[in-house]
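I am writing to request your help with a piece of structural work I have in hand. What I wish to show you is a protein chain and, alongside it, a tokenised description of its three-dimensional fold. Could you please explain, in whatever detail you think fit, how the structure tokens follow from the sequence? You will find the record immediately after this paragraph.
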Amino acid sequence: MSSIVVLEESELRKLVKESMAEVLNSGQSRTAENGLSSVEEPLLSRQQMAAELNISLVTLTDWMKKGLPYLRMNGRVYFRRSEVIASMRHNVLK
């Protein structure tokens, strides 16, 4: 059988803060054990990045020459979406 508990706003805020702290701390300890960052971002291929940006591969290559951030691994090119978006925002806001 369930029961209803009535809390004051300050008590509820305290419980939420404690719960969030627990969740964040458990996430940090798990990532420290694995040696991974808290959020692993997938790498995108040239084709995937061009599709995301709705541009051609030729345009993407041109943007890479102009400084669009990318990674080269085993002769292949990959992108992190967050880095590309941040670079584009920075260049637009210049």
Summary: The CA atoms of residues 49 and 55 lie 9 Å apart. The longest strand covers residues 76-80.
